[in-house]
Amino acid sequence: MRGIAQCKSHTRRPHAQTASMSSPLVLETLQKFRLIIGAVRQHSRAIEAACGVGGAQVWMLATIADTPDITVSQLSQALSVHVSTASNLLDKLARAGLVDRLRGEEDRRVVRLRLTEKGREIVARAPRPLTGLIVDALEKLPEASLLRLDED
User: Fold this and answer.
1) Distance between CA 109 and CA 102 in Å, rounded?
2) In angstroms, what CA-CA distances link 96 with 4, 48, 52, 57, 93?
3) Cα–Cα distance for residue pair 35/32, rounded to 1 Å
4) From 29, 62, 73, 87, which residue has the greatest number of CB atoms within 10 Å?
5) Which residues lie closer than 8 Å to 139 by C-beta, 6 or more apart?
6) In degrees to the nearest 10, what's the CA dihedral of 65, 66, 68, 74?
7) Model pTM?
8) Could you report the per-residue pLDDT of 68-97, keeping only the tens digit for each?
């Protein structure tokens, strides 16, 4: 209820600009964002329907498939997520029998990752792109465009 009350009080304040007064460029950009978000949702549903796991997990499985014996920290860097986030996702994948965690012989603290046969089957049937639509689209942009996005 607190959130609703805050929202109601927020809506009573005069806005500097309402949707009806937004510039055409703002509205066109908003429409493009909605298209992107819709496409991402549709792709995520397709991945989940085909694989039984979410898009982030498929991306993780694909990364492990491309780099057998990758460590958890290397995986978190490859996915641009915190190590604890990668570890939590890996817990789910390991419980589902999709990933094997192998302790190092020399240093038991080092954990290397490999897909199980079941994990490889999921990667094989997953809709492409395995990294998700946004990462795939960003990878196709010229470096100058990426730099401009980063600066803005």
Assistant:
1) 10
2) 39, 14, 10, 11, 5
3) 5
4) 62
5) 131
6) -110
7) 0.69
8) 899 999 999 999 999 999 999 999 999 999
Q: How far apart are CA 50 and CA 61, in angstroms?
A: 14
- Tell me which amino acid residue 101 is: R
Q: Which residue in the block uniquely carries the two structure tokens 């819709």?
A: 38
Query: Which residue reads 């609703």 in tokens?
Result: 4
Please give the single-letter amino acid code of residue 70: I
> Does residue 14 sit in helix, strand or coil?
coil
Q: Residue 72: name the closest of 52, 106, 102, 116 by CA.
A: 102
What Å distances lie between residue 65 and 21, 54, 78, 137, CA to CA? Answer: 50, 16, 13, 21
